[in-house]
Each structure stands twice: as C-alpha cells, then as structure tokens.
Amino acid sequence: MTEGNFTDYVKIYAASGKGGAGSMHLHREKFVPKGGPDGGDGGRGGHIIFRGNKHLWTLIHFKFQKHFVASHGEAGGANRSFGADGKDVYIEVPLGTIVKDAFTEEVLFEITEDAQEIICLRGGKGGLGNWHFRTATNQTPRYAQPGLPGEERELLLELKVLADVGLVGFPNAGKSTLLSVLTSAKPKIADYPFTTLKPNLGIVEHRDYQSFVMADIPGIIEGAAEGKGLGHYFLRHIERNAALLFVIAADSDDIAAEYRILLNELEAYNPELLDKQRLIAISKADILDEELTEALRHELQASLADVPFLFISSVSGKGLQVLKDRLWAMINTEL
Q1: Lower CB density within 10 Å: C or N end of the chain?
Q2: Which residues are annotated as a binding site?
Q3: Which residues contact 120 (CB under 8 A, 6 or more apart)?
Q4: Please, are residues 283 and 312 in contact by the beta-carbon 8 Å criterion?
Q5: Average pLDDT score over residue span 200-223
Q6: Which residues, 6+ apart, have CB-to-CB distance to 325 below 8 Å?
Q7: Residues in binding site for GTP
Q8: pTM flag (> 0.90)
C-alpha cells in the first residue's frame, strides 16, 4: 500500500429513504358499488447500512463518493397491495472504522468484523392504508397515513488500523526498512526523518503458511501525545494493535532513554496501551561487532529488565527469523 492512496479520515453525507404513503382506496367493481376500504400500506424507506469488508484497507473510495441516499418506499395500492420497500444502501468500510456524528463527534458505532452490518439510518416507516381505519361507525374511512420521513446525517469515518503488530519508534529508526524486508509492502524509505507520513501495512509470512499483519506507524516524536508533529494522527493507529514492536537504532545515543520516551508518549495518549505486549528490536545491528553487541546487551539487561529485546538487521537479515518467531508467540498468547 502506498502512502498516496491511504485515507483514514473522511466526512460523508447519508440520508435514508422516506416511507411510502398508505392508500386511501375504496373497493369498486361490478355489482359491488360499496365494497369498503381496501387501501394498502406504503413501503418503508431504504436503510443506510454499514458493512465491514476485510478486503478494504483504507477509506480512499470515499474520495470519489461522499453522498449516500437511499430510495423512498412506494405508496400502497388498491386491493390491500403493499408498496415496495425502498432499496437499502450498503456502505462498505474496512475493519477498524469508527463512525461518528460530524457535529457532536459522538461515537455511534465501530466496525471490527468482516461482514458485520449495522443500520446507521433507518428508513421512514410506511403509512397505513385506509383499510386499517375502518370501524363499525366509520365503515368507509377516506383517509390514510402518510409515510414517515427518513433520517439524514453528516458522518465522520475514522479508520484505526487493525494489525497484529504495530511498529513504534522515532523517525528514521528503520521501521519502514524492516517492514519492506519482512513483507511485500513497499513503503517510502529515505535517510531523513518523517519519510513515512501514513501507516503502511504488510503481511508477514511465518512458518507453516501462517501469517500476521504488521503496521508501520509513522515516527513518534517527544510531545506527540500533546499534538506535536502529527501527534494524535499517528498515535491513534496504535490502539488496535495486538502487540507493539519498539524499533530503536543501534547507533542511538541512549537506547533505554529512547524507549522510555516512546513509552511515556503512549501512556500520555492512552494508558491502556501499556497493557499490550511489548518487544524491543535494536535495528541496524550490522554496524556492531560482537564485542560491542555483548557490551550493549549487558547494559540493556540492567536498564531494561522489564521488557525483552533482541538485535536485528534488515540489511544482513540478522535476527529476523527469531523476531518473527517471537512476534508470532506474542500475538498468539493470551495476556
């Protein structure tokens, strides 16, 4: 997935259909001059229904269509014939989509499962025909109900990436390179900060034809939880990951300090993020010789006793299979 077609925040307009009017009809045929009321009911208006689609990864398709209007129900007819219901409109969204009211920003619902369907706006109820209003004292009612109006609303759709593993780290830590090596994703890679401006997703192939989804979250900077950089725009994608892989470059001035800064930003944004399983990958380990690697290992064992870590290199392939094994074990283990 390229950054240019990744859209994770859109505003749309939706309106359900109006209910059809009930019929005010009196039965007439030869030899039955006063057959009484036989007006049928109107059909309901079409619903606006959201449906989860596991094959969608972005909201890019809403760039070309932002208005969704369901059809009205048809009016009832003679001989107690019912009007047809309006056609429902299905809006397909990727898993992880949150639907909000555009004015209040109230969360209405979220779609997290494939084929999950939620009626967002109900079509108006069809009106009752005059057949329903006959009584002993009013045997020929000359009135029927009109259909009820539908609903309309402006909606915000916000996608929070659903992935098994989220890559967390400072800009230019090697996350995009790691993703490109482990998966078939082709993220933009360069030697300057903030190369990645949108989440990139890739499928990591594991042993025995098993696989899991990895997301490269754009780089976090200190103060991101308060909105610095692109702040919440980056951090909200981490909420849906099952496990977090912290990627810190081996040539960092202080690996433990960088990890704690990243952890503090996550906690400031949402303390529940600290409940997720965590693993630190020391990237660019190919620049270290064995002596430096062992010295750094002992140093990190003392300062990062609460979280596991390993050394990897996306260039040489060092530690990548071990990394995949560890991540697979993490996402398949209940906390």
Answers
A1: C
A2: 169-176, 194-198, 216-219, 283-286, 313-315
A3: 14, 47, 48, 49, 50, 91, 99, 108, 109, 153, 155
A4: yes
A5: 75
A6: 206, 207
A7: 169-176, 194-198, 216-219, 283-286, 313-315
A8: no
